[in-house]
Amino acid sequence: MNSTKKAPAEFQPFLYSYDIANLRDRVAVRYSMPFRAYEALKQAQEITTPKNAYIGGLAAVLGWAAPSVDLVTFEPVEENNYARTLCFWMIDPSESIETLKNQADIALEIWLGLALSKDSFSQVQNKLHDGRFSSGGGCIPFPIDSALKSGGTCAKPKDNRMYSLLTLFAARQLEGAIINQGMIEEGELISTGPQNDLYSGKSLMRYRPGQIEKGTRSGLWSEIFTAVALNTPEQNNLRIAVNIGIRNFGDINPAALFKQKSRYVDIFIPSDQVLSNNVRRMRCVELELMRSDYSNSTSKSNETSRERKILLKLMEMSGVRDVPQELGLTPFELNGFSLYPRLGSNHGDKYALAGTGIPNPERENYLQLLDDRLLPAGFERIKFNNRSFKQERSLKAIDGASALRNAVAIAAADMPGGFRLTHFVNGNKDEESAKGALLELFGEPKQATPIDSTSVEIKYEEDFQFIYQKIEAGSLADKVPKIDETILAQVPVENKSKRWSIKQHLQKEAAEAARKNIANYVSQYAPSTDTLWAALVEIPKFLQEEPARDPFLLNYEVLAEQGAVTQTKLTDFDDVTIETDEKAIKVKRLIYENAICDLLRSAGVSPLVSGQVRLAGWWILARNDRSFDKRPGELDGLVTPLYADCINGQLRVCILNDGEKVEWLSYSQALIRIAQRKVFDLSKIKKFSEQATRVEQFFAAATPNDAIPTVIFSEATNIRRFIKGLSNDALQFDTLNLGGIGGATAQREMRSGKAISLIRITNEAKKSPCYWVSERKQGVAKGFFQEQGAENVFWLNRGLTDALQQGHSWANTVSRHVETDPRKFAHRRFPSLSEVAVILKGEDMEADQLAGITRKAMQLHLATDEETLLPFPLHELSVIR
To answer: Which end of the chain is more exposed for a tag (fewer CB within 10 A), N or C?
Structure first.
């Protein structure tokens, strides 16, 4: 019998190398707003130094009137000068300096006229044109040094603006490319408008978005290509990573709009032929529109955001006279001007027709397009070796109800009161789903004995038991009291500072009243002995609509004060029909399963049963302090280092306590301590260099110095500012010094060949290149990969997006999102690659073996969502708030 061996799959990342010396002759032109005029702009916006001016809507105006502008920044007025001003950058423009300056002047004045009041505009305009205030202004060619620094393990340009230049250069090669040729979705890649930051890359979108229909449903979708410059260890050139994804568009139901949260629209704007001196360049810009902007909104507010004013003016100047009443709620095209409302990744496109991405063949075509456009411009596609994958079998994860019960018992071992799960229910609508989830996770109990009207003691064969309480949510689901608006009405509208101060005081009083009500209610059910107490709180979804009256954060704070870790599950009373469909019942049960699993994670239940190594993580908890519009229960900002490790199923955390001492706690105790802000806040130290030294000293002390094989995980963007040796600028393999001040001896010297291995993961989705792999139906590669010639750097696949996942995919987003996160409105990326650098190799450890352990640890989680990439226990540190 003859058999033929199947050829190995071909794997090609969308990753290209470039010698930046080739950019030495490229021209960059910088237009600067006169400093005094810029200061007048900030004064009109009531912005104090050193904050930058608000420039919302400027990108749209520049795309229409000054299409050569690629980048908007805030630069020093003179070299090494503290004062800054607004600047526009043009890369390789075809127009003269005089023409570019004229375009920028006109665009800036148009925007100022729309963004400011009449009087404020007049004051800023006078300073723009008065020669006495011309300091810091002008339009000049600007040299960018294309040389690289010497030494180190990464290619580093002498001028960091080279990253932006390379990003724009690559995006320019892709702009105008025709994709999906010969297909119904054929279109042209259109560049996004000028940005004020290119760290996350420059995007291009297909114009026009394609129509797709399935049965009675229809929608619009488009690809997004994003090019971003980066450097990686062991390589001597900068590179460009390209990631590609899908964005869905469609009608937005007004009922889906929140009172104080915004939606995003993508607008394709052709440049004005008169103002742009016949430069034909269409741009795609995004605008953020408030609920009060929509004419058919239920909001009674008559306010109109400056973004909408700009949108309406651009439509008028583009010849669009009849503005539809539903503008911003439905796709709209007229006279070359088109607008598409986004369906975000958590706001509608789970059910959109393009929400699951594109099959493999198109991705091969995209790779060919990238080669056709980038290779002739001097880029070189990076080659990877064949997959080098070792399955890590020493790490054993929880598998089944018995193992989960044992893990909970380990987490509660030091608690006399054992484990208690309190379910604060908001109605009994999904009672059967909750029961089904508990049975699925913990198994059928041996005995369930009622304790009182709310509590049941549940026992299992192996002598494991816990208490389950079911209690009405009560005050936990009530709105925070409304402030007395009549008090505010007594203060003149013009006195904004006093009105804000009074409003803050009234909101604090309302929050304090709500806190007392919640505390009094919860205290009735708090355990009387030390208990591993986990609370699942259900509250109505509509509470999100008014952040100033949402009790979500207060619930966490009050429950932490009383010794509980908390997970919130939203309930949606719009759907009151009892589900009978088998799939719908399963989905509801899965939602509860994921909520309970996330709650068990908060309680410190380890997903790792056993292993031959200690898994550990270094993390910097950094939460910015929001001085304005704090919501009820919102805590002050905080910067503090955290260390966690796990061995034999015991997860523990080391903190820097409020006495500035290293202290070991269980994971649940650490969550509660941090929620109470009873840890040392590094932001109290004024000098960042001293903060960084304290961080290094903490990790030097917290990291065990024994003979147990230990693998420590860190994340590059989180740690590199505080530990210089983990930044690309100073990275050295096989050595890391911690805690040295100035030229003093390090507090701890870490070297390869000892007990500790150290892994640095780069978890930046926008800097993660997508890839194409043959012989795969969904085009997804498993495992990790390595560039030719690399020894310590690997690339791990990020896996499927949520919409492509099976099983728990409908149930993965049960947790409350604290912030209004713009990423929710982002596109769905194709599977991509994340860089993994092996900094230190432990005794008898090889780099590929450590990459295998990293890969396995990425799968060790009790609860996940589409953004979960970091390995255990680093991910568990990253979700602490």
So the answer is: N
Question: Which alpha helices (DSSP H) does 576-684 contain, by range?
Answer: 582-602, 667-675
Which residue reads 């068990």 in tokens?
600
501, containing H or E segment = helix 496-523
Exposure string of 384-415, with b = 16+ CB inside 10 Å and e = fewer, is beeeeebebeebbbbeeeeebbbbbbbbbeeb
Identify the H or E element spanning 370.
helix 360-374
- What H or E segment, with its residue span, contains residue 44? helix 35-44
Phi/psi of residue 104, each to 5°?
-65, -40
Mean pLDDT of all residues in the chain? 82
Residues 6+ apart with CB under 8 A from 496: 46
Q: Say how many residues make up the chain.
A: 881
Pairing of strands 455-459, 465-472: antiparallel
Please state the φ and ψ torsions of residue 660, each to the nearest 5 degrees. Answer: 60, 35
363: Cβ–Cβ under 8 A, 6 or more apart, which residues? 244, 770, 772, 779, 830
Helix axes 360-374, 161-174, angle to 10 degrees: 110
Q: How far is CA 797 from the centre of its chain?
A: 18
Among residues 550, 380, 570, which one has the least CA distance to residue 480?
Answer: 550
312 class by beta-carbon count within 10 Å (0-12 exposed, 13-18 middle, 19+ buried): middle
Quick check: helix, strand or coil at residue 496? helix
In the structure, how many helices (H) and strands (E) does the chain have?
A: 18, 38
In angstroms, the CA 376 to CA 389 distance is 34
> Please, what's the largest Cα pairwise distance for the chain?
94
3-state helix, strand, coil in the chain (%, to 5): 30, 25, 45
Distance between CA 398 and CA 404 in Å, rounded? 6
Element (H, E) at 15: strand 15-18
CA nearest to 695, candidates 720, 727, 669: 720
* Distance from chain centroid for Cα 453: 43
φ, ψ for residue 497 (rounded to 5)? -65, -45
Q: Shortest CA distance to 191 belongs to which of 52, 285, 275?
A: 285
Q: In sequence order, what E strands does 261-418 have? A: 263-270, 282-289, 332-334, 337-343, 380-381, 396-397
Q: Give this prediction's pTM.
A: 0.87
877 has pLDDT over 80: yes
* Burial classification of residue 106, based on how many CB atoms lie within 10 Å of its CB (0-12 exposed, 13-18 middle, 19 or more buried): middle
Q: In the structure, what pLDDT confidence band is assigned to residue 758 with cuts at 50, 70 and 90? A: very high
User: Do the Cβ atoms of 421 and 468 come closer than 8 Å?
Assistant: yes
- Find out whether 794 and 836 touch, Cβ atoms under 8 Å: yes
Burial class (CB in 10 A: 0-12, 13-18, 19+), 719: buried
Compute φ and ψ for 750, nearest 5 degrees: -110, 130
pLDDT at res. 811: 33
> What residues contact 333, with CB distance under 8 A and at least 6 apart?
208, 339
Place of tokens 């003179």: 78
For residue range 273-329, list pLDDT tens digits in order: 666 566 677 888 887 776 666 644 444 445 566 777 778 887 887 777 777 766 778
